[in-house]
Amino acid sequence: MVDLTWKIFSQTGNLETYLLMKEIERERQETAKKDFNELVEIESPLS
User: Fold this and answer.
1) CA-CA to 28 of 20 to 30 Å: which in 17, 35, 39, 45?
2) Who's near 2: CB < 8 A, 6+ residues apart?
3) pLDDT tens, 1-47?
4) 26/5 Cα distance (integer angstroms)
């Protein structure tokens, strides 16, 4: 999805498309961090 939004932005210069791309990137990073933290929690429980 990021590739598509970048391609559209690079061809049109549309700022809304660029902002959408950045939002998608942020959501992916947040999901990856959450998934990593959950994995670490499963691998090494505190109790």
Assistant:
1) 45
2) 21, 24, 25, 28
3) 889 999 999 999 999 999 999 999 999 999 999 999 888 888 776 65
4) 14
The pTM assigned to this predicted structure is: 0.73
3-state helix, strand, coil in the chain (%, to 5): 85, 0, 15
H-assigned helices in the chain: 2-12, 15-43
Structure tokens given for 32: 């990856």
Please, what sign has the CA dihedral across residues 29, 32, 34, 36?
negative
